[in-house]
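User: Fold this; tokens only.

Assistant: Input:
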Amino acid sequence: MSGSSTQGIKTVLHPVSDLLRAKAVYTALLGIPPQTDGPYYVGFDAEGQHIGLVPGGGPQGMTSPVAYWHVANIEAKLAEVTAAGATLKEPAHDVGGGRLVATVTDPDGNVLGLVQDR
């Protein structure tokens, strides 16, 4: 295949109904406090992975965890996966700090996230 490879899954976002309760559970699970701790997002950086808690599923309305594949060129990867049969769910957009994110669905409706750090 001629496309670009990924850098693997480094980010997983979990929708939560109660951010404070979820933060306590993930703090106990990971054994570290969150590095990002706000009313709309709590994030943990553990062993090279980022675990995020998103109240109410965030603006995307996530209903299950979404794994984010890190890529060097998000637009090229979006073109590649949609040409292969994925459906664009959320176009690439900046979420701050130069980080671009996008989501697609595979043919079975599973949501796949893409992340590009600038």
